[in-house]
Design goal:
GO molecular function, one term: rRNA (pseudouridine-N3-)-methyltransferase activity
Organism: Flagellimonas ochracea
Order of helices and strands: EHEHEHEHEH
Shape: globular
CATH superfamily: SPOUT methyltransferase, trefoil knot domain
CATH class: Alpha Beta
Distance between the termini: 27 Å
Family: Belongs to the RNA methyltransferase RlmH family.
Pfam family, one: SPOUT_MTase
Subunit structure: Homodimer.
CATH topology: Alpha/beta knot
Amino acid sequence: MQITLIAIGKTDNAQLGQLIALYEKRLKHYIRFEFNIIPDIKNSKNLSEDQQKQKEGELILSQMKPSDILILLDEKGKQFSSVEFAQFLQKKMNSGIKNLVLAIGGPYGFSQTIYERSNGKVSLSKMTFSHQMVRLFVVEQLYRAFTILRNEPYHHQ
């Protein structure tokens, strides 16, 4: 299985970028991982929230194959403990999925088209985080999940 993380807009904080890169590198020891950054929508100030979500949704869909399983990182999604998230990933791997796509939406979330295409939603917290921080949290939790699955000492319980 491959895991692809899709996010809208680049990370403009160099320190966050370094931490994301650190966990990306660690994660690649366990699974094929790809991080696709979709550039910010140009002239987004001239667009309504719905128009911006629609354009971002089209760009997300353009990155995907029909067989990809799409999981949205969404505040209304299912919340997991780290161990439960590891079990969720194990079930996905056991089911024979080729590519699990995790998507981080833009500032206004996802378009209705993306919700309809998705195969599920995961919430990192009831709290709201910046899109920059969510990237770091996701790659760290993916890394943590694989260390849990391998019984490695990174995660303490």
